[in-house]
Amino acid sequence: MINFYKKILLFIYFMSIFGCFSQKNNEFYDFYNKKHKNLAFKVGEKAKYKFSYGQSNKKGILTAGYGQIEVVGISNIDNSSCFKVQAKGGTTKLFDFFYEVDDLFESHIETKNLTSLKFKRNIHEHNYKANQVVLFDRKNNYANTSDFRNSRKGGLKISNNTQDMLSALFASRNIPNENLLINDTIHLEIFNLEKNNIFPTYFVPINKETIKTKIGKLRTIKCKIFVEKSRIFSDKNSTYIWLTDDYRHLPVKVETPIRVGSIYIEILSVENL
Hints:
This protein is mainly β. Helices cover 9% and strands 51% of the residues. It starts with a helix and ends with a strand.
C-alpha cells in the first residue's frame, strides 16, 4: 500500500510529459531549433488537480491528494530568459497517516525555443527525501547533476531533444493544431533526474471527446500514452489523458490502471489561462 500512495502522488507530474501532439515520423520532436510563438500559456497560469483511486473505467471514489502546476514567473539562467514553472503535490490529512507526501518540482524553460535549462526536485515521501538539480548545458549537450542530500555530482550526455518532465509538457502544448493527427505518434526524450538516465516515451491521440469537468464542459483530445511496466503500473491496459481541443492543450483528466483498480487525475480549477 505504501508504494501505491507514493505513485498516486507522483503520477500527476509524470503525466505532464504526455502532451497529446503528433508527428508523421518516429523521430524525437525537435524543440531546440524551432522558434515558438508562445500562445498556449503565460506567467500566472495555475491549474489545480485532485487525484483519487477507484475501479477501472469509473470515477475515482477515494481522494488521495491534491496538486497544482503553475507558471510562477520569469527567471534568468546563463543570461537566457526562462519561464519558471512549478509543480507541487501533497497527500490529504487522512492519507498522511498512511504515507505523507510533500513534493516540489521546478523547471526553467528557455522562452525562445522552449527547452529546459534547469530542473530540480525536492521530495519528501514518508522516510524518503531527495534534493536534486540538473543544469542543461545546451552548447555541449551535457546534463550536470547535483544531489545535495548525498553530496554527489554527476553528469550525462544528452541531445538537442532532451527535456525534463515539465518542460516537455509546456513545449508540447505549443505544437500547432494543424500538426496534430489522430492515430499518429510523437516521440519525446525525457531526462529522469531521480535515476540519472534518459527516458524515451511516446503517445498517440486516438479520438476527440466532449467531457464534463469542474471547469465546465470541454471539447478534448483523448490520447493513449506509454507508461513503463512496473510493480504498480500494469501493461495489460492503456493509460489515457484528455487535453483541451484548442491552442492551449491543457491537461484536464488522466486515467491509468494499476494492479488493482485505476488512478484518476481531474482538474479542479485554472487561473490566467
